[in-house]
């Protein structure tokens, strides 16, 4: 999907006001996110001077704070199945941008390492992928001050 470099889309957010997002930063989730199949287009908006991003639905107010998993777990790696890679237009694993959702649990920031977000900038396709074959936690503490993230 070819996108002009100077094309932008405006998203009205109830929490962040009007977001002006380059079209190249809008990703299509064919199956939506886990538990949210109706939301399929999301904009990826960086928070300036931080490692965090906002993943905001193009329609509606749904949004998530996301971040690179390598910042919380140095050796966070997994295989992307060939069928999934093909559906995302992913030719080489290094083309993918992997992010994890940040949640607040019991006033502590945690990340979901079990179901990362995989984005492919070249195709602008994305998915949330459950790592069934890996023993990553759904709630992993973010930072040294967070010792646990209970349910």
UniProtKB/TrEMBL annotation:
Belongs to the FliW family. Keywords: Bacterial flagellum biogenesis, Chaperone, Cytoplasm, Translation regulation. Interacts with translational regulator CsrA and flagellin(s). It comes from Candidatus Reconcilbacillus cellulovorans. The keyword Ligase does not apply. The lineage of its organism: Bacteria, Bacillati, Bacillota, Bacilli, Bacillales. SUPFAM superfamilies: BH3618-like. It is found in: Cytoplasm. This is Flagellar assembly factor FliW. Acts as an anti-CsrA protein, binds CsrA and prevents it from repressing translation of its target genes, one of which is flagellin. Binds to flagellin and participates in the assembly of the flagellum. One of its GO terms (biological process) is bacterial-type flagellum assembly.
